[in-house]
Automatic annotation (TrEMBL):
This is Amidohydrolase. It comes from Streptomyces chryseus. The keyword Nucleotidyltransferase does not apply. It comes from the Bacteria. InterPro entries: ACMSD (IPR032465), Amidohydro-rel (IPR006680), Metal_Hydrolase (IPR032466). Keywords: Lyase. The lineage of its organism: Bacteria, Bacillati, Actinomycetota, Actinomycetes, Kitasatosporales. Residues 6-331 form the Amidohydrolase-related domain.
Length: 334
């Protein structure tokens, strides 16, 4: 039986969430930080780019037509990371997450056989994260999307232990997708905020989860790292060396860091065939999933062609194209 083609990295823009926070004072500061991190040249390009893609980000019919053109059967749809709003206070954060969860579920409900959804949780308020995850699952969503950190907190923070435990217990998917890089103005030209910032943030966040022992304590966690996990999978040898050579590096996790790649999932969005081949070698063909970043300009317009260019074996190609995600999402084979 042939698995459907499944894209696990696709986004939806939620005007309801934008309207909710539009008049709140914290939004101006968050936008100023985003502008400082990206720089004026990037903002001048990004604004028109998003406006041009607004129909694909909001209209289910436009999304399905684009999926047909790509040969994608199923998308796992997550909110645009711009909806995290980790600056928000507890009351606002809970409203943002509930509204985002409900709006994403409504968007996907227009084509339940082809669209699965993810919600969001307020990482800035760890004590609210379990409740937000449960709310997302109650809407019929498959899990939640999180960033690489929250202000003042890394993903290794013990305060997140109840969230990781609940995600493991429920089998919820956790999609790790950074938004913003703390290198700030060092990356404010030439779109380095994205091209360097995103893979850096992925690598830092995954390293926190590995070295702190979170993955030892929660071996059943189903976490997908966007952008192929950033720099970490292809440079994991340095982490292994530190783990074996230094007592401080090896104190928190039980096994060499590279072994944890086989406990994680990674999307295929790495933009180069040889990098994708190395990701498959490092993590295993059963741990890589098709991802496009639909419909943004840093995504793959033809994700299946990008996968084909890696020249994997037929079995590995089908696993990445949709077999692995079908198992993860409990999709029926055709």
């Amino acid at each position: 039986m042939t698995p459907p083609t499944v894209d696990v990295h696709a986004h939806v823009l939620l005007p309801e969430v934008d309207a909710l926070v539009a008049d709140l004072p914290g939004l101006a500061g968050a936008r100023a930080l985003d502008a400082r991190r990206n720089g004026p040249a990037a903002l001048a390009v990004s604004g028109p780019m998003v406006r041009e893609r607004l129909p694909a980000l909001t209209d289910t019919a436009v999304r399905l037509a684009a999926m047909d053109a790509q040969g994608v059967d199923v998308q796992l749809v997550s909110p645009s990371p711009s909806h995290y709003h980790y600056w928000a206070d507890e009351g606002t954060a809970e409203k943002v997450c509930r509204l985002a969860n409900e709006a994403t579920a409504a968007h996907c409900s227009a084509a339940p056989g082809r669209l699965r959804g993810l919600g969001i949780v307020p990482l800035q308020h760890p004590d609210l994260a379990v409740r937000a995850l449960d709310h997302a699952l109650a809407q019929g969503l498959s899990g939640v999307e999180i960033s690489s950190h929250a202000p003042g907190r890394e993903l290794s923070d013990p305060a997140y232990a109840p969230f990781w435990a609940r995600a493991e217990e429920t089998g919820a998917i956790v999609f790790l997708h950074p938004f913003g890089c703390t290198l700030d103005e060092r990356l404010d030209q030439w779109y380095l905020s994205n091209t360097v910032g995103q893979p850096t943030e992925n690598a830092v966040a995954l390293s926190h989860l590995i070295f702190s022992g979170v993955l030892d304590r929660h071996p059943g966690l189903r976490l997908i790292a966007a952008h192929g996990g950033g720099y970490l999978p292809t440079h994991i040898g340095r982490s292994d060396h530190a783990w074996s050579a230094r007592s401080d590096a090896g104190a928190g996790c039980a096994h060499p860091p590279s072994s944890y790649l086989k406990r994680l999932y990674f999307d295929s969005l790495v933009h180069a065939p040889h990098v994708l081949r190395e990701l498959v070698r490092a993590a295993g063909a059963d741990r890589v999933l098709l991802g496009s970043d639909f419909p943004f300009d840093m995504g793959a317009e033809d994700p299946v062609a990008a996968l084909r260019a890696a020249r994997l074996s037929a079995a590995d190609f089908d696993a990445v194209r949709g077999g692995n995600a079908s198992t993860l999402l409990n999709l029926a084979l055709v």
